[in-house]
Amino acid sequence: MSLASVQMNSGLSHRSQSFGSVGSLDDLHSSCGYSAASEHVISIEELRIQLNSCFTCGVNWQDDHVSLDCAECGGYSLERPCPLCDGRCNTLWKRDLTMSHACGKARWEGQCQLLLKPISTKDESHLCKRLEKLAASS
Prior knowledge:
Shape: elongated
Protein name: Protein pinocchio
Low-confidence stretches: 1-20
Number of strands: 5
Distance between the termini: 86 Å
Mean pLDDT: 78
Strand content: 5-15%
Order of helices and strands: EEHHEEHEHH
Number of helices: 5
Largest sheet: 3 strands, antiparallel
């Protein structure tokens, strides 16, 4: 990117500096006193890797790495079996990255499919009969 002319006003003096033909933004930064070494800009890929990693122990969840004794990892990477029914519903819950990082403890998003199913009247009556039988034998 080329710039033809840049005028800068200093708050301390009313004179302006003119930069003739500045070849690039890097030239502009160096002429204004900025150096590339003073600023570290991370790429989108580096940001994605950082967000998909544990802030506490540093393992990369994207690569299915976990630390078993780290509260933020919670023993799982980015997905885990349903914690409500210990995976019997075959639903995978996804890590809530924002809350896991903010709390320093594993947080998950998902719904247990077993808890969503309403119990049928047939099953309900069967359970009632078994409970009555159990109560009578006690």
